[in-house]
Amino acid sequence: MEEKEISKAVISRLPRYYRYLGELTNAGVERISSNDLSRKMRVTASQIRQDLNNFGGFGQQGYGYNVKYLRTEIGKILGLNQSHSMIIIGMGNLGQALANYASFEKNGFLVKGLFDVNPRLDGREVRGIPIRMLDELEAFLKENPIEIAALTIPKTEVLRVSEILVKCGIKAIWNFAHTDLNLPEDVIVESVHLSDSLMRLSYNITSYRKEHGES
Amino acid sequence: MEEKEISKAVISRLPRYYRYLGELTNAGVERISSNDLSRKMRVTASQIRQDLNNFGGFGQQGYGYNVKYLRTEIGKILGLNQSHSMIIIGMGNLGQALANYASFEKNGFLVKGLFDVNPRLDGREVRGIPIRMLDELEAFLKENPIEIAALTIPKTEVLRVSEILVKCGIKAIWNFAHTDLNLPEDVIVESVHLSDSLMRLSYNITSYRKEHGES
After folding, report:
1. CATH 1.10.10.10 residue spans of chain A
2. Which residues in B18-175 belong to E strands, given as ranges?
3. DNA-binding region at which residues (chains A, B) (predicted)?
4. Nearest to B195 among A23, A104, A180 (CB)
5. Contact B196/A16, CB-based, under 8 Å?
6. Which end of chain A has fewer CB atoms < 10 Å from its terminal CB, N or C?
């Protein structure tokens, strides 16, 4: 497959393909046409064909897609054929939710460490993983090869924690703090800003009402 | 201001402007040029001007933007000048995280009810709001005007719960379940798919490594 620049929009849609193909696999579907996949996913068939053509196609004219094969290939593109070691920093409700989310592991994301600053949590376990105190983070990272750090901490803590992470060579951060991270360019950041999402919902409610003459 | 179709990309950036303008307000900044805002937000100044021109501009040539005014106006566009009543269904860690997230309230999102199916949670309170059982949902919605339902439930429960919500006239759903909702077109859905986000991170790690010759 030729290497070329894939647009962010295409990349952002790949996990959704992966998810739908997983559901189809579970439902025992072996082959699906782009038209059927299109109806199911509520995107146009031409969008599906275009998106997948970025990676070489995968479909045979007239035969549709082999669901299992396509899912595996998209998984490879997404890097899900390799395991990814992860730590979670911040064991509030959100951190605990992530630590308890078993389906991450099915996709190769392995939680190796949990950290917090609250001494009452010290040594408590989530799914067998002990919660460590933040001042153990550096030593932990020296001994354990960790790829991804999930940050579920208040934004006031972000600077301090991300400095430790960068210093210890962490190259990927999954950021839930309500602020953007300004880190060196070789650190990959994926942010989940819940407030931003809620505001988009609010925007859509507001503009729907305007269109329909409600106030 | 003329009504026109605003692109999804622009809308998705508005909450980020709102967030930065909030930080600037807190820092006591009264006025900012699009160039300074551009550096801070790491987007081009021309993008900022283009985005804001969708709503009539807000800036005076040579004077930059009035931070407080711009924030208020963007807040209005996002519908944050009105309050939005919300319920949260699913009081696992993620639901509790949302229920505890006080900053939603600052933006007018008022949590009015919490629901779960676990009898052990019945009557327990989060920030003074009692957790109710799911079988009380319909009666609750008849008595309380609720705009947004946040779904932090397993995907196996989504169909059942969303049917109740639609039947009771809920028109906006903030969906955290790991599946898309197929609802009537007049129901606005904003989904936060955490796994999709983690897969995007994984994709970026994988493609960064390819580019840099690591395996």
Report:
1. 8-77
2. 31-32, 65-66, 84-89, 109-116, 125-126, 129-133, 148-151, 172-175
3. 16-55
4. A104
5. yes
6. C
